[in-house]
Every structure is written in C-alpha cells, then in structure tokens.
C-alpha cells in the first residue's frame, strides 16, 4: 500500500489525503495552500478510493489524517503545515516542489 500512496503523492506537487469530504482540518489546509499561496493541491478522498481502507491504515501508521505530501515527501498533517507557515518555511517549500511560481 505504501507504493500506491507514494505513486499518488509523486503525481502532483502538493497532495492531501483525507478520509472524506467532511474533514474540518482539511479546510484549514486547503485555505492555507490554495487561498494564501495560490498553490495547486490534489485532494484524494480515501472513502472514494478502491483501496481506501488499506491506504488509510498505511497513512495512519505514519501519523494522523489528513496527510499532506509535498514533492512526494510526507510532511505530516494540519499542525505541521501550520507550523511551516508560521516559521516561514511553507512558501519556499511550495516554490521548491513547483506548486507555486514567482
């Protein structure tokens, strides 16, 4: 299952894996990435994926859901993304992975 998650995470600069569309934390992530920075963001609802339960189990073994990947690397969840924003490392990371351009 790790391979499937990694393949999906590598298809786009920024990827959000969430359980379903009713994710309150996800709205914060979407607002931050798309609203504040205008970055592209691919969202996968695990409840709509054929292997969603197995993917969810794999992602939860890495940390909590929702799970954010940038440049194919697992960054964590909402807390980690907000921390990156506060410390000023989010924008350079978005630039580095090609999610935004100057």
Automatic annotation (TrEMBL):
Its main location: cytoplasm. The keyword Cytoplasm applies. This is Glutaredoxin. One of its GO terms (cellular component) is cytoplasm. Belongs to the glutaredoxin family. CC-type subfamily. InterPro entries: GlrX-like_pln_2, Thioredoxin-like_sf. It comes from the Eukaryota. Gene3D superfamilies: Glutaredoxin (3.40.30.10). PANTHER family: GLUTAREDOXIN (PTHR10168). It is found in: Cytoplasm. Keywords: Cytoplasm, Redox-active center.
